[in-house]
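Priority: medium. Attachment 1 of 2:
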């Protein structure tokens, strides 16, 4: 088996972002010594769950992937990976391994959150909502939130407020992030018959939805500060990063063209990286 042909099935960049979010959930909830072994098991389990959901996404969307220029070179539409049943078996096996690893090395709440995250992305988003409703990415964004909760649960199986608040941030971040991406690729989604928000209401109105959502995102990012969880680094990241993201949202409203949408998409990733990075910095100085 040529493993390189199968690697794109797992969307490793996306899964790495989800896994990073889980680690931030772990660190953000930590009040004692940092457990390297727990972090390693969490990373492995989260990557496996994410890769499983991604492989299912490739399996289920192989028909519309063959229509869009962005995705027609993926392993299944291009023919570099043949046998859809094999991909489905790989997806199920990785999911099972993720849950087993979580139960054995961590706890049942980590397993539950990872299972829910994979279920939301694979079944709720991919199989149910993606082709039916523009709210697809709003509900689908819960997948990332469950990863943060899994990280928090690896420290304390009871629902901890600090990772729960970060999960809310992740929930609001996803639509602003993906709707910018959808504006850039609107014509391809339209061709494939996928009702992403820009296809349904147009680019300019979508830009307004992005701004409204980003305001909610930035507001939610300050709630952990109100509860005293994070310090100066996080406050600076939330304020400056949030202002920069909103600035590009406004630019997108004024000029809802592909180039600005792509910049807004990139800015969303910069914002999340800086904000979650600040969580790690603050917790480091607190002696996690």
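Attachment 2 of 2:
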């Amino acid at each position: 088996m040529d493993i390189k042909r199968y690697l794109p099935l797992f969307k490793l960049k996306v899964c790495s972002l989800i896994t990073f979010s889980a680690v931030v959930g772990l660190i953000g909830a930590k009040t004692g010594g940092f457990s390297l072994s727990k972090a390693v098991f969490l990373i492995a389990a989260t990557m496996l769950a994410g890769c499983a959901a991604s492989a299912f996404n490739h399996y289920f969307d192989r028909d519309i992937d063959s229509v869009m220029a962005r995705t027609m070179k993926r392993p299944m539409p291009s023919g570099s990976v043949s046998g859809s049943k094999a991909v489905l078996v790989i997806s199920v096996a990785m999911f099972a391994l993720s849950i087993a690893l979580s139960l054995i090395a961590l706890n049942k709440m980590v397993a539950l959150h990872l299972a829910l995250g994979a279920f939301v992305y694979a079944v709720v988003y991919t199989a149910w909502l993606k082709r039916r409703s523009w709210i697809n990415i709003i509900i689908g964004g819960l997948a990332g939130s469950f990863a943060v909760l899994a990280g928090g649960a690896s420290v304390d199986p009871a629902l901890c407020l600090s990772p729960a608040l970060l999960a809310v941030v992740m929930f609001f971040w996803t639509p602003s992030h993906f709707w910018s991406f959808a504006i850039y690729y609107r014509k391809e989604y339209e061709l494939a018959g996928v009702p992403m928000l820009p296809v349904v209401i147009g680019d300019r109105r979508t830009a307004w939805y992005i701004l409204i959502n980003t305001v909610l995102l930035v507001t939610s990012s300050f709630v952990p500060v109100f509860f005293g969880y994070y310090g100066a680094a996080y406050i600076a990241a939330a304020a400056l990063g949030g202002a920069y993201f909103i600035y590009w949202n406004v630019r997108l409203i004024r000029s809802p063209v592909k180039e600005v949408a792509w910049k807004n998409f990139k800015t969303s990733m910069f914002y999340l990286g800086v904000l979650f990075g600040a969580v790690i910095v603050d917790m480091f100085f607190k002696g996690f």
